[in-house]
TrEMBL record:
Pfam families: Glutaredoxin
Domain spans labelled Glutaredoxin: 13-75
Organism lineage: Eukaryota, Viridiplantae, Streptophyta, Embryophyta, Tracheophyta
Chief location of this protein within or outside the cell: cytoplasm
Presence of keyword Cytoplasm: yes
Keyword Chloroplast: no
Protein name per UniProt: Monothiol glutaredoxin-S11
GO annotations of cellular component type: cytoplasm
Length: 101
């Protein structure tokens, strides 16, 4: 869990993802369309991926991926990200990170 927290605090916007996950890709593309280039950590390419997956579930993600953090804070998975987007508050939360890569 410490590694997840460390990565989340070091990166402005991070998506914990799996390379074969279509919902992960969708969330990533949504951020790109908004003008955000999130850091994407593919847990299926990480030797500690299973431990990261367990940590994300313990932190409250309803599915291990996608798990989105903004400013070190867990936002959630696809449902939470899309709800924020549809309400208009996702863009507001991402504003500080718009020009960062």
């Amino acid at each position: 869990m410490e590694r997840v927290k460390k990565l989340a605090s070091e990166k402005g916007v991070i998506i914990f993802s799996k390379s074969t996950c279509c919902l992960c890709y969708t969330v990533h593309m949504l951020f790109r369309e908004i003008g955000i280039d999130p850091y994407v950590h593919e847990i299926d390419h990480d030797p500690e991926g299973k431990e990261i997956e367990k940590a994300l579930l313990r932190m409250g993600c309803n599915g291990p991926v996608p798990a989105v953090f903004i400013g070190g804070e867990l936002v959630g998975s696809t449902n939470e990200v899309m709800s924020l987007h549809l309400s208009g508050s996702l863009v507001q939360r991402l504003k500080p990170y718009k020009n960062l890569s």
